[in-house]
Design a protein that fits this description.
This protein is of the alpha+beta class and 221 residues long. Helices cover 34% and strands 11% of the residues. Helix 1 crosses helix 3. It is elongated, with a radius of gyration of 21 Å. The termini are far apart. InterPro entries: ScpB_csome_segregation, WH-like_DNA-bd_sf, WH_DNA-bd_sf.
């Protein structure tokens, strides 16, 4: 087999990432590139080539994309009316899921100290920031929730280990705010490292019995 020109592979990856509507993984790239293409070398070469430029190559949730350099983000800023903002309850719930996943509704309520509104969970599910990960193998088989790749992309996180730790949150003054009772900030590096996800234990075509928990009732003020 003729060895592929590294520059050719690099240019192919560059073209694919430039034209892609969403970040691409190594597997996605391999499906498009000729057999034998050294994707890792091509990615490394592109990262070096774009270092310090207006556009940089970044890894988000295990996928690659081109994005505006952080120090030039002010050029892309515009004032506009946000069609939808997360309520304080939704922000607290999302933070609890992010730091304690996989987590059940009951555990979210225990941390916040108040009952979780159906509307709050619905909003986060609808926005794609959280997802149902499966059932916990405990009495009642409660459903667990975790964050999604969309959550990682929105907040620019490569892995959950990039979530701010206690020191960073204190430096930003966030831990001086009134946090929900029972809320703790675990070490991001210890977040379920290497732990397998709870399996989605549903039969094909079965309507999960907990579906009625997510009917979208409006959240009470």
């Amino acid at each position: 087999m003729t060895e592929l020109d590294p520059l050719f592979v690099e240019r192919c990856i560059e073209a694919l990432l430039f034209a892609a509507a969403e970040p691409l993984s190594d597997v996605d790239l391999a499906k498009r590139l000729p057999e034998g293409a050294d994707i890792a070398a091509g990615i490394d070469a592109l990262r070096v080539r774009y270092e310090g430029r207006g556009v940089e190559l970044a890894c988000v949730a295990g996928r690659w994309r081109f994005q505006t350099a952080a120090d030039l983000s002010f050029l892309m800023t515009e004032e506009r009316e946000e069609p939808r903002r997360l309520s304080k309850a939704a922000q607290e719930t999302l933070a609890i899921v992010a730091y304690h996943q996989p987590v059940t509704r009951a555990e979210i309520e225990a941390v916040r100290g108040v009952q979780a509104s159906r509307g709050t969970i619905d909003v986060l599910l609808e926005l794609g920031l959280i997802r149902m990960r499966g059932r916990r193998r405990t009495p009642g088989r409660p459903v667990t929730f975790g964050t999604t790749d969309a959550f990682m992309e929105h907040y620019g996180l490569a892995t959950l280990a990039d979530l701010p730790g206690i020191a960073e949150m204190k430096a930003a003054g966030l831990l001086e705010m009134n946090l929900p009772p029972g809320f703790t900030v675990p070490d991001p590096l210890g977040l379920r490292a290497g732990e397998e996800e709870d399996p989605l234990d549903f039969d094909d075509g079965e309507t999960p019995e907990f579906a009625q928990d997510f009917l979208g009732e409006p959240e009470k003020a």
